Amino acid sequence: AGNSHSATLNWTASSTATVVGYNVYRATSSNGQFVKITTSPVTGTSYTDTTVQSGQGYSYRLTSVDDLGNESSPAGSR
Fold it and tell me: Please, how many CA atoms are within 13 Å of residue 32, restricted to the half-sphere of its CB?
């Protein structure tokens, strides 16, 4: 219980009218494999990752999802 940590990500909404949400991906190293950590697209412009571990660095990527379920290429790394 004493080791609970979180990281909150914020982004600007897409200007594309057909975007309905965003998928969040995480890697444990800058050149590591990114794994989707959201079970369904996030509809807002923020996400809190509550599974981070103390002392571990993370990189995140974001993709947008349109109303047909198509996913964009990843937007930047953070």
Answer: 14
* Token output for 73: 């290429």
Distance in angstroms (rounded) separating the CA atoms of residues 40 and 60: 16
Query: For residue 23, which of 67, 63, 53, 66 has the smallest C-alpha distance?
Result: 63
CB atoms within 10 A of CB 63: 19
- What pTM was computed for the model? 0.85
- In the chain, the N- to C-terminal Cα span, in Å, equals 27
| pLDDT digit string, tens, across residues 23-33 | 999 999 877 89
Q: How far apart are CA 52 and CA 17, in angstroms?
A: 32
Q: Residue 6 belongs to what H/E stretch?
A: strand 5-10
CA 60/CA 47 separation, integer angstroms: 11
Measure the CA–CA gap between 58 and 72, rounded to whole angstroms.
Answer: 21
